[in-house]
Amino acid sequence: MTPRILLLTALSAAALLAGCATASGPQADPTTPTALDAWSREVKVVAEPQDVRLAPHETGLSVTQADALEGFVIAWMKAEGRGITVRASDTGPSARGANRVAWDARDRLVSLGVPPASIKMAAYDGADDPKAPVIVSFNQFVAEVPQCGGWRNLSHSNDNRAYDNFGCAVTANLAAQVANPEDLVSPRDQQPVEGGNREVMYDKYRKGEATGSKRDDKASGAVSQVVN
User: Fold this and answer.
1) What is this structure's pTM?
2) What average pLDDT does range 100-104 have in this prediction?
3) Is residue 50 part of a domain?
4) Which of 62, 129, 64 is nearest to 100 (CA)?
């Protein structure tokens, strides 16, 4: 073999080696689920309705009911709630009074700083119940996190795979620390500027002052009670 042929052969081999050195190997598919993805699917976000029930009055919202709505709005703010629904019976002898209280309740919520666009008015069938209440509610979300356990020697691995609980603790801690678990479900809409009354209530809250008027037991907002 002549020197020229030997040189060409060597150059060809070098070129092949260089190509092997610079060629990229198999790339990981970013859409392929990982061990951490499995735990994120174990986080369950559950809606827990929070409501206050108002007795129907043909004269409209009572003073006690107005106070109860103030406490309701404070709870809504603390929970970083989104939409508020006001539901009134549109059947039976209480329909007229329920309708009056429902619209008064909406006006009261707006005066306390709730954006009108966040309030939904709805009706329900109260049958013949003369005391079918007006229900003012919002959903407060809580995160149910996975229970981690079954730990083993983390330094021992025969197959070079993630251990059973890899990522569980981190996922559970992050989910538990989210201020509003609803953010794990969907991003929130841009919020309007706080109203004047809402800013006053926030200022009292920051100072540790009472943010609502004194209320009796009927103004607790418990599901089993109706505020008169």
Assistant:
1) 0.58
2) 95
3) yes
4) 62
